[in-house]
Design a protein that fits this description.
86% helix, 2 domains
């Protein structure tokens, strides 16, 4: 690949990589933090605290994940405002997402009692685990405004192509969390409460770091131009974009949850094998996300500038890098997958089962590539109604595949259905891509 072909549009390989690589690196810190928290609490020598932290973290992560639309929607809207050269609107978008984060976080704090009760009712554990998990969540919930606001800040920074700042934010926040977890649990012997307090302080520190990283937006008057911030047309558009993304994300999460629930019917060995194989899927997602985020930024700016040639170049260059990454991932999983499986479990039956299903994960990076790239392209263009509608179609196709294949093929049929869902997401969005281009050329 060379940069000369895209020099006129400014969409170069170097620019794409400058956006994508920091995102990939920041994603690496996510599983590291979870491993450290588990390892630290594991030093207490009891099972209940480990289960409590795991349960509490999953519940709160799922709750905050509902507001993940704030990250995606903000990137598309802010990138388009930047492409239009509307710097005041870029700043106003930051104010809006910060306000949404604060309001949503305060609502969660006020509703923490019924929310914690409902979560523990849906995912009950032993009395000891539930008591400690409730304690953990009652502490961690106090950083909800910060955690949700950081999602919006992250999307805003990505729209400005400031993914190095995103890397600094994630590494800084997770670094504070790791250091405080070790100190509070191993040094001060605070146990589960120590892990929770560490996360609360880290998330508020993350919000502070995010505001510092966004300080240029506060230099002008746009961020506090209240008639602009509360402009009804802008607010309605933001609500529409975010609600579409929320519906799309809930459907996607439902597909993955059904995958796990259905896998549980095949026994403990198959369930464990699938859990190991899902780690390969997570790695694939972490890697391809970097290029999907590049697409969000570059496509959003092109759509804002009404520059169809730039949109096409951005789509092509980002997709080529995504393809190269997907092929490397496929080769890596093929070459190293069996060894990784043996490291992740010593159980011979689980090793054998995971290895037998591994071919599905080898083809996944290439099969899923289009779904990741088109997600980024459509988010950048804020064609979120298409994303919502095509996800509905894909979810129906996935359900039909499950009904048709699982009774005969068992767990292989389940993996086939998930693979088909990736193909369906990519293919259905591809069918809507011409309409996206027409909306830019009008």
């Amino acid at each position: 690949m060379t940069d000369t072909a895209d020099a006129r549009s400014g969409i170069t390989n170097r620019r794409v990589l400058r956006i994508a690589l920091p995102i990939v690196l920041s994603n690496v810190t996510i599983p590291i933090l979870g491993a450290v928290d588990t390892g630290v609490i594991g030093q207490m020598g009891e099972a209940a605290p480990i289960g409590a932290v795991g349960l509490g973290a999953i519940v709160l992560s799922a709750l905050y994940w509902v507001f993940g639309f704030l990250r995606m929607g903000t990137t598309g809207l802010a990138a388009q405002a930047k492409g239009q050269g509307d710097h005041a609107e870029v700043a106003a978008i930051l104010t809006r997402v910060l306000m949404i984060g604060v309001v949503a976080g305060v609502a969660i704090i006020l509703l923490q009692g019924p929310l914690i009760w409902a979560a523990l009712s849906l995912a009950p554990g032993s009395a000891a685990v539930e008591t400690l998990a409730a304690q953990y969540m009652a502490i961690r919930v106090w950083s909800a405004p910060a955690a949700i606001a950081v999602l919006g800040i992250t999307g805003w920074l990505i729209a400005q192509e400031r993914t190095r700042a995103v890397l600094v934010l994630q590494v800084g926040m997770n670094g504070v969390n790791v250091v405080l977890s070790i100190w509070f649990v191993l040094g001060l012997d605070l146990g589960v409460a120590g892990v929770a307090f560490a996360t609360v302080l880290a998330e508020w520190a993350g919000l502070a770091m995010g505001l510092v990283l966004c300080r240029a937006a506060f230099a002008g008057p746009g961020w506090r131009s209240w008639h602009r911030v509360f402009d009804r047309i802008k607010l309605v558009r933001m609500a529409r974009v975010n609600s579409d993304i929320l519906i799309r994300s809930l459907l996607l999460e439902g597909m993955f949850l059904s995958f796990m629930f259905l896998a549980a019917d095949f026994g403990d060995v198959t369930l464990a094998a699938n859990q190991i194989l899902l780690q390969f899927l997570h790695v694939t997602a972490y890697a391809l996300d970097g290029f999907a985020f590049s697409a969000e930024t570059l496509v959003g700016q092109a759509v804002g500038a009404r520059a169809l040639p730039t949109l096409r170049r951005a789509t092509r260059v980002v997709s080529l890098w995504g393809l190269a990454t997907a092929v490397l991932l496929a080769v890596g999983i093929w070459a190293l997958g069996p060894q990784v499986i043996t490291v992740m479990t010593t159980n011979a039956d689980v090793q054998s089962a995971a290895t037998s299903f591994l071919p599905w994960l080898i083809v996944t990076p290439v099969v899923a590539l289009a779904s990741f790239m088109f997600d980024g392209i459509f988010v950048g263009a804020t064609r979120t109604a298409d994303m919502r509608n095509m996800m509905i179609v894909s979810a129906v196709i996935y359900a039909c595949a499950v009904v048709a294949l699982v009774p005969t093929w068992g767990n292989h049929g389940l993996w086939a259905a998930l693979t088909i869902s990736f193909l369906a997401r990519g293919a259905t969005l591809a069918l809507r891509y011409p309409a996206l281009e027409r909306s830019v050329s009008r």
